[in-house]
Amino acid sequence: LVEAQQGLHFRANHATLEQLESFDLGEMGIKMKSIAPLTWEMLAALLDPNTEWRRHWEVDEVDMDCSSSDSSVSSSEDEFIWEDIDLDELDAGDIEDDAALENNTFPTASIDKQVMILSVLGHSSNQRFNAFQSVMGFFLESKQCPEIILKTVAHMGISISVKSIARMVNLLSKKA
Question: Its domain of life (predicted)?
Answer without folding.
Answer: Eukaryota
